[in-house]
Amino acid sequence: MAIVAHFDLELHQMDVKTAFLNGDLDEEVYMEQPIGFVEVGKEDLVCKLNKSIYGLKQASRQWYLKFDKIITQNGFKEIQLIDAYI
After folding, report:
1. What are the Reverse transcriptase Ty1/copia-type domain coordinates in residue numbering (predicted)?
2. The predicted structure's pLDDT at residue 1
3. Do residues 33 and 47 touch, judged by C-beta distance below 8 A?
4. For residue 74, what pLDDT is reported?
5. What is the mean pLDDT of each run of 10 residues along the chain (86 residues)?
6. CA–CA separation, 73 vs 70, rounded Å?
7. Where are the domains of the chain?
8. Is 5 helix (H, G, I), strand (E, B) or coil?
9. Which residues pair with 11 in a beta bridge?
10. Parallel, antiparallel, or unpaired: how do β-strands 78-79 and 46-48 relate?
């Protein structure tokens, strides 16, 4: 915001709904079966996650990595001094 104000720039903001659900996992992560979805006789089975979910410790990092890749592919460059994009 300080850079925008200093240089009298125009600022656009956005919100990515369910952002953390879009992160790609780079390791195998398993979870217990969700309540209400446990099959009778298969209570000891677990679920393998294909994508990040809210509450997963690495969810924010995985979203950042995906966002960084997409925004860089679209021609934005990171300002190394402050970890921002222009």
Report:
1. 2-82
2. 80
3. yes
4. 96
5. 88 89 93 91 94 92 93 88 65
6. 5
7. 12-85
8. helix
9. none
10. unpaired
